[in-house]
Amino acid sequence: MAVPQHAQNQPAIEVADLVKTYPAARKKSPVRALDGLTFAVPEGVVLGLLGPNGAGKSTAVKILTTLSRADSGTARVAGLDVVKQQREVRLAIGYVPQESSSDPMATGTENLVLSGRIYGLSKQESVRRAAELLERFDLKQAADRQVRTYSGGMQRKLDVALGLVHRPSVLFLDEPTTGLDPEARADLWTEVERLSATEGLTVLLTTHYLEEADRLAGQLAIVDHGNVVAEGSPEALKAELRGDSVQVELADPATSGRVRSLISRLPGVGEIVVEGNTLRARVDRGATAVPAVLGVLEEQAIAVAAVTVARPTLDDVYLRYTGRTFRAAEQASDEERAA
Ligand SMILES: Nc1ncnc2c1ncn2[C@@H]1O[C@H](COP(=O)(O)OP(=O)(O)O)[C@@H](O)[C@H]1O
Ligand SMILES: [Mg+2]
């Protein structure tokens, strides 16, 4: 069997045992932002680094883009060591930070041309590349407008274009769609998919949106407390959980105890959780479990308001590997920050 070209090459990003501790500040204890972070990204893949706020995603990206340094561990990007070959790494990568890096008082073209000049392109080349990118990201109409007049979605697209001026082979996008409305978010998703599909770019994006990770990432690394707790394609991670989740809404919550015991006796049913008048159970196969559940409840004349069956989501995956729901993790992180 022929081996795909990229499989013969080294990974585009290779991270091993990164540790980073921020010193104590304002009477707080030191923060171990990265605690042995390890993962690899094959060439041409979109890797999603998924984790709640505070998981260490931005810290990892800053180290990989040479803007910060790990206490220990190693990282290579495009085959280059991020500490020993900083200059080369910077030329090989594009970096779109969490906060926009464009000049709001300059036009789209001016921002792109300046960026081209910084990367050593000639004036003429910079102008040509700027026009190409504005066209590519559907910003041509706004090329000569100050960036402060752009919508959030347009600004974000310009940010991505700025990261591509020097034709890097690896692109880092830190929380690319935070703060965008759903339409602008979907638009940017399409752009990122296109970059990877048509230009073979390797993309590392960080996100705390489960939906974004599911949609965009060919490969996922789920990060929790500075560590990768699970890795794989979203489909594979969900498939590992096997089975479906069946949800029964009871007309009368008082029946939930009886329903629990009836359902637990059905074959292929496990992990039953009752919350109010809702009962959730993991089943081997939703398609066969639903009629069985309805049958036994009907037999006992127990009224049901609704029954739904769903495939496991990334939220279920996160719960499985971290022991808490994604939402709970985000809340805990927000509370920690407010403290
Ligand atoms: N410059 C810094 N100084 C001190 N602590 C920091 C600094 N940057 C990040 N942290 C802390 O390190 C942890 C990881 O942060 P970060 O990498 O920004 O996570 P994420 O991008 O996943 O939200 C958090 O607890 C955060 O408060
Ligand atoms: Mg971040």
TrEMBL record:
Keyword check for Acyltransferase: no
Molecular function as annotated in GO: ATP binding
This protein's record includes keyword Nucleotide-binding: yes
Subcellular location: Cell membrane
Domain ABC transporter positions: 13-250
The entry's keywords: ATP-binding, Nucleotide-binding, Transport
Membrane topology: Peripheral membrane protein
TM regions (residue ranges): none
NCBIfam families from the UniProt entry: drrA
Name of the molecule in the record: Daunorubicin resistance protein DrrA family ABC transporter ATP-binding protein
Organism: Kribbella alba
Source lineage: Bacteria, Bacillati, Actinomycetota, Actinomycetes, Propionibacteriales
